[in-house]
Design a protein that fits this description.
Blueprint lengths: L2 H16 L4 H11 L7 H18 L1 H16 L7 H30 L3 H21 L11 H13 L7 H11 L4 H29 L7 H25 L6 H19 L2
């Protein structure tokens, strides 16, 4: 794995992690299309941590308010009194389904990553989810109005993204639209909800890397992948939040459908 491959992987991860087009599908399908080896485990962990840093920097003010409010709520024994404290607890609640599914069914989901055609098929599922979400758009809830049932439903949809090809941001945003959030709000909540699960996945990948006996990747390659994913991810978050103020998810649904169909056609043609 060299520097150029690290840059490519970082850019792919940075853009596809936050756009509703499935980073896992691209990490599976692009190497398959170009007959490249699958990315090294340590580099995957590095680029995931890069996108985690991007979302934490972008929403640093929100996260600070949430942490402070949760601390005050615990101290006053009123954890759900303040809106920011409620939001923090709801983010943790929404993280439970994906974390539980990952712990209980981790090997099953890992096996699906070795099947590119399955990833392409699930990419079509993402397209359907995005179109369905647009059809269900009806509400105007803001982040402060998110309730615990909203967080739990969105969290259940996040668990679907353990399948490669189902976009985490796409599935959670669809659930948010169903629960009455508008597009920018559902995107914002989706990004915040993704922080715990991305942190957990990054740590798990790092632990697996140390447990593996494979040859370690050079530190410079890991740093380049980390920085590339972080920088591209930061600008991608800003782009999507700006885009969704005036546009729909249909463009991303069309891309997912086209990419999934193209890969399945190429695979069928040998």
């Amino acid at each position: 794995m060299d520097i150029m491959e690290a840059i490519l992987l970082g850019i792919v991860q940075g853009f596809t992690e936050f756009l509703p087009i499935s980073s896992s599908a691209h990490l599976v399908l692009i190497p398959s299309l170009f007959q490249m080896p699958l990315p090294d485990l340590s580099l995957i962990g590095s680029v995931h941590l890069g996108t985690l840093l991007a979302v934490m920097i972008y929403f640093r003010n929100d996260l600070w308010l949430i942490v402070v409010a949760m601390g005050q709520g615990i101290r006053l024994r009123q954890p759900l009194a303040a809106p920011d404290s409620r939001l923090g607890w709801y983010i943790l609640l929404g993280s439970v389904p994906a974390a539980t599914a990952g712990l209980l069914l981790g090997p099953f989901f890992e096996r699906t990553f070795s099947r590119p055609q399955a990833a392409a098929g699930f990419l079509l599922v993402t397209a359907v989810l995005l179109v369905t979400g647009e059809r269900m758009l009806s509400g105007k809830k803001q982040v402060g109005q998110v309730s615990w049932p909203d967080a739990l439903v969105i969290g259940l949809f996040q668990a679907l993204a353990l399948f490669p090809g189902i976009s985490r941001s796409g599935s959670t945003m669809t659930a948010g639209l169903w629960r009455g959030l508008d597009r920018p709000t559902t995107a914002r909540f989706s990004f915040l909800l993704g922080i715990p699960i991305t942190l957990g996945a990054g740590l798990a990948t790092t632990l697996n890397m140390f447990a593996a006996s494979a040859k370690p990747v050079h530190a410079a390659v890991l740093i380049v992948g980390f920085l590339t994913a972080g920088i591209s991810g930061y600008f991608c978050i800003h782009f999507l939040l700006t885009w969704l103020r005036r546009h729909s998810f249909y463009l991303f649904a069309g891309y997912c459908a086209a990419f999934g169909v193209l890969y399945l056609w190429l695979a069928g043609a040998g």
